[in-house]
Amino acid sequence: MAEKSARHLESRMSQLRALLSLEPNISDRVRSASKMAAVNGENVVDAKTKVWTQSQDLTLLQKVENHLQSSERVKHRYVKDIVWSEIAFEDFDEHDVHKRFNTLTSKIRKMRTAKEILEDAKQKVTEKEDTRKSRKRKREEKDPTFPKTPLTSYLIFCEEKRPRLAQKYPNLGSKELMTKLAKKWQKLSDQKKKKYQDIYAENREKFDHDMTKYFIEHFPDEKPPKSAFNLWSESKEKEIKKDRPDISQKKLNKKVKKYWEKLEESEKEKWEKKAKSEVRKYIKKMKKKL
Known about the structure:
Number of strands: 0
Largest sheet: none
Oligomer: single chain
Distance between the termini: 51 Å
Number of helices: 11
CATH topology of the largest domain: DNA Binding (I), subunit A
Shape: elongated
């Protein structure tokens, strides 16, 4: 019975991969497959929240599926039976993967086996991505100046490696090539992944800047996000005024500027992170106005 269930799960995974397969011209199609929740306005990166890409969502579901297949009683296994420490991967610990799985299955009827819930979760992830891509296409058709979403580190890797892989395996279709690329990415060391993560971080910073500029130009009445200096100076001005309530604004501005110039880089970095968080909150808010 377990063998029959395993074959059924494998069949469902094949259908899922077919839904997610990319066209041979990855440079255009891969952009619409990019899945960064922060860019999509769903999450803000902070100390308590981690952003999940669509690729990572599918990896999570695949690991849950593999975990279920390893059980002799897979047909009757429930979510409470899953050992989440065995599902953890990349930077996501057992609590992260458990929380994300609960999020993905939040609107799915729970009084069923883990296998049944898993099938609905995979369908939900793919349908959500299809809806997001449709909205993105409509938005870009309306305004071609709207900044393009940057590729994730994984998709940057695929874009770089796919041409050579396609040349090496000319008889493989797009789906099979993407499967090979996914396996290569999973085996890649953290040190080698960092190259692509750094490229993404740089592209993401430019995207946030371009998005902020776009919204400021198109929604001039909305309050723009504050810079690191502005966030820091607000607290510093209060501190100075507390000791010198009669200080003029001109002198206050000069003092604040001098304090900022002398501030240690490590302290400035903290305020830069806060400013980035403010920018992403602003982008999330403004995207709702489109």
